[in-house]
Amino acid sequence: MLNIYRKELFTYFWSPIAYIVVPVFLLISGYFFSFSLYYLKLATMSNAFHNMSILLLLLVPVMTMRLISEEKSSGTLELLFSMPVSIGNILFGKFLAAVSLLLIMLAGSLIFIIPLIIHAEPDFGPIWAGYLGIFLLGTCYISIGLFVSSLTENQIVAALGTTAILILFWFIRYIGNFEALQFINLPFEFISTSTHQGDFVRGLINFSSVIYLLSLTGLFYGLAWLRVHLLRFG
Amino acid sequence: MLDVRNLTKKIDGKTIVENISFTLNEGEILGFVGPNGAGKTTTLRMLACCTLPASGNATLDGLDLVKDDMQIRRKIGYLPEVPPLYEHMKVVTYLRTIARFKGIPANRQNDAVDHVIERCFINKMSVREIGKLSKGYRQRVGLAQAILGNPRLLLLDEPTSGLDPGQISEMREIIRSAAKNSMVIFSTHILQEIQNLCHRIVLIKNGTLTYQGRLDQYGLADDGITHLVLRLKGDRKVIESALNLEGHDISYQLGEQTNGSAEIKANVQFPEDTATQTAILKELLNQNITVLEVSPKAKDLEHTILEFMRSE
Q: Where are the domains of chain B?
């Protein structure tokens, strides 16, 4: 597993992905944070966390699009199958590498706390809750991206497919607002990732939100495992 | 030893490979021959643990292909038709990555990588990015990853396709030297490859094994023996006495004389030596035997395979 992790991390930093995703994330979230702090005079991280969640909807698909689709298209997945590396290790190594990149992005954003400390006396409880939320949301996005990447050999299709699913999960809570769709009796509010993220942004660590995001991560990770496992039957 | 028993593969209900059985012994090179879509690649993929068989099984040194797949994978080197390469890596980085994937102990990885770089003649390219290499070098890097760690079983899917004659010759040399430590199975369309490398061949068509046998049955093995087919006209006893040439190690089989004709077909084998061939022909002429045709037996294999490939 560590060998796959190492190789994936190497690939992130060899390719432009890490050098685009990390700065874009920090610059855009930094801009919104500065706007909130210096223009709206709000000495909190809430807006920053909300904007980070939206940014991850667009950046995680870029991070995950090549994870499996590239191995499929270049034939290296076959190579991995012929080596003493289990499918579980392949997937976990890849997942962990993407999570590491997410952690680097989040670690970079810790710099936002400095102006908060200078200009106000921030309450660190909601800040850490917000970071926990964004981390859980990010890992959930990554597992969805990993799954979609296992469905195709085309990285663009993988990125677009992941974005579509992430946006669907983010906005699905609003489906209940449409009268025409109210006959669908599903807990859209609960299914939506934005609902759970909202709790963390407000500084609440809601146990059900933690469980839901972890479950969604597990579900898509499991689907990715199943998909790759089925490839050996083809 | 590799023992393949009734290996069958179905994809979407369609049978791709059906009941293929063969064995492979220590130090042997086995050629998989057959038309496109015959099931050669699928069989190799099954043996490389890339895809699971629908039924049947194979054992490598007593290990079960399905149940002990992790142990089997440690003993396999696989080169698919398109070399599986991480384009962005340097050759040496790629091979070190593969060494780690193969579970080669950390203290032996560098030596193992240096060894295959040497064996595959890629020293000059070792710090070049793989994506910038020519097809020939990419193929060599692919072969280097396959032979890394001296696998017990080497599976090569058309390893020489698309290479120029010089590269083919080098590739052949690499495979031949790899076979000293491994059993080798390779698929090919190139009959010259079979002649130069294989000890045995397996002919596959429409997913079934239609023939398997030793290559020397065709007089084609690269065994230092010349095999000739002579079409002669004359008395049988005189021909026999002419072929029992003193001072030469000649063996021969004479065919039956066809009715009403004095024509006899003779299969003659002798150690590769033009002097013996000249002596045989001289002696036949001295004995007033008419030599209607002299042909190398190689033709038989080519004809057999071509007919097999063309037949319905």
A: 2-218, 225-296
For A229, name the nearest residue in chain B, comparing CA atoms only: B51
pTM score, whole prediction: 0.80
- Subunit contact B73:A78, Cβ cutoff 8 A: no
Which residues from B are below 8 Å from A81, CB to CB? 48-51
Q: How far is CA B69 from CA A93, A220, B51, B190, in A?
A: 20, 26, 11, 31
Report d(CA B219, CA A111) in Å as an integer. Answer: 77
B270 strand-pairing partners: B226
Distance from the Cα of A83 to chain B's closest Cα (Å) equals: 5
- Segment A3-10 shows an average pLDDT of 89
Q: What is the mean pLDDT of chain B?
A: 84
Spell out which chain A residues touch chain B, with contact meaning CB-CB distance below 8 angstroms.
3-4, 6-7, 10-11, 14-15, 74-76, 78-86, 232-234
Give kind and range of the element (H or E) at residue B94.
helix B91-101
Tens digit of pLDDT for each residue in B209-264?
877 777 665 544 555 677 788 888 888 888 888 888 888 888 888 887 765 667 88
Contact A78 B45 (CB under 8 A): yes
Residues of B in contact with A80 (CB under 8 A): 101
The predicted-structure confidence for A166-222, as pLDDT tens digits, reads as follows 999 988 877 767 766 666 666 777 888 888 888 888 888 888 889 999 999 999 999
Query: Measured in whole angstroms, how far is the alpha carbon of residue A38 from the centre of its chain?
Result: 28
Contact: B101, A11; criterion CB under 8 Å: no
Q: Does B277 touch chain A (CB under 8 A)?
A: no
Tokens representing B183 are 């059993």
Q: Residue B113: what are its φ and ψ, rounded to 5°?
A: -65, -45
- Is the CB of A78 less than 8 angstroms away from the CB of B100? no
Residue B125 confidence (pLDDT) = 87
How far separated are the first and last CA of chain B, in Å rounded?
34
Contacts of B83 in chain A (CB under 8 A): 75
Strands (E), chain B: 2-11, 14-24, 29-33, 55-60, 63-64, 76-79, 153-157, 183-188, 200-205, 208-214, 225-233, 251-254, 263-271, 290-296
**How far is B105 from chain A, CA to nearest CA, in Å?**
13
Residue of chain B whose alpha carbon sits nearest to that of A231? B51
CB–CB contact A75 B52 (8 Å): no
| CA separation for the pair B169, A8 (Å, rounded) | 36
Residue A23's pLDDT is 94
Helix (H) or strand (E) holding A120: none
Query: How close does chain A come to B193, measured CA to CA in Å?
Result: 24
Residue B304 has pLDDT above 70, yes or no: no
The predicted structure's pLDDT at residue B258: 65
Q: Which residues pair with B3 in a beta bridge?
A: B23, B59
Which CATH number is associated with domain B225-296?
Answer: 3.30.70.260
- The CATH code of domain B2-218 reads 3.40.50.300
